[in-house]
């Protein structure tokens, strides 16, 4: 069985987007380097530094399923039916879309985080599950479902916005020392949750 990894690109002060759901400079590092890397979409290359490419090449292929919220699904239009990373996407929502133009895409809609992780485990087999930052991360962490945290920190302070852990109120969680990879305009911090 793979790990459940809470992951996102974040500002120094812990936001995954501003108050308008814009990422601003958070994703600039995806296009500032000489090395091409790909998630699940062969038509969507990223150009990053060698250090970031090595980190992404070591982590992205391990992901079988991404768990996202309805908000991210709506903002990205479900990446037009192609998962960003992995082979399948589980969307947490109480109102699945009825008119999405990609009905055959590998997307499953479920009502809660526990059901989403259970479905993702079924689909992922022995591969990892990526949970996107925001309220889902906080819910998964509070439920004790997160094994690792992948925090790609960009040197910018937002001041306000959408927090990586959403409205988390689950108490302290200790992490092991991070694996640290210094990219160009991003620092990848990868932690194991201490059990």
Essential attributes:
eight-stranded mixed β-sheet, 12 strands, alpha/beta, 195 residues, 4 helices, two-stranded antiparallel ribbon, Dihydrofolate Reductase, subunit A
Structure explained in plain terms:
- This is Dihydrofolate reductase family protein.
- With 195 residues, the chain is an alpha/beta fold.
- The chain is 19% helix and 30% strand.
- An 8-stranded mixed β-sheet has the order 7-6-5-8-1-9-12-11, with helices on both faces.
- A hairpin with a 4-residue loop joins strand 11 and strand 12.
- The model has no long low-confidence stretch (mean pLDDT 95).
Can you describe this structure in just a few lines?
The protein is of the alpha/beta class and about 200 residues long. The chain has helices spanning about 50-60, 70-75, 115-125, 135-140; strands at about 5-10, 15, 35-40, 45-50, 65-70, 90, 105-110, 130, 150-155, 160-165, 180, 185-190.
Describe the secondary-structure layout.
Elements: E1 4-11, E2 15-17, E3 35-38, E4 45-48, H1 50-59, E5 63-69, H2 70-76, E6 88-92, E7 107-110, H3 113-124, E8 128-132, H4 135-142, E9 148-154, E10 162-163, E11 179-182, E12 187-192
Parallel strand pairs: 1-8, 1-9, 5-6, 5-8, 6-7
Antiparallel strand pairs: 2-10, 3-4, 9-12, 11-12
């Amino acid at each position: 069985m793979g790990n459940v990894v809470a992951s996102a690109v974040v500002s120094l002060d812990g936001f995954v987007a501003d108050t308008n759901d814009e990422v601003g400079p958070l994703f600039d590092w995806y296009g500032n380097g000489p090395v091409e890397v790909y998630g699940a979409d062969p038509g969507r290359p990223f150009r990053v530094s060698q250090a970031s490419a090595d980190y992404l090449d070591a982590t992205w292929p391990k992901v079988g399923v991404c768990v996202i919220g309805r908000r991210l699904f709506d903002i990205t239009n479900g990446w037009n039916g192609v998962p960003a990373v992995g082979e399948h996407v589980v969307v947490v929502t109480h109102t699945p879309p009825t008119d999405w133009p990609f009905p055959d895409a590998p997307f499953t809609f479920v009502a809660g985080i526990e059901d989403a992780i259970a479905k993702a485990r079924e689909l992922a087999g022995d591969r990892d599950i990526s949970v996107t930052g925001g309220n889902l991360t906080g819910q998964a962490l509070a439920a004790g479902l997160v094994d690792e945290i992948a925090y790609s920190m960009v040197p910018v302070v937002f001041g306000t916005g959408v927090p990586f852990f959403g409205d988390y109120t689950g108490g302290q969680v200790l992490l092991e020392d991070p694996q640290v990879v210094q990219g160009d305009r991003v620092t990848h911090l990868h932690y194991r949750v201490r059990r």
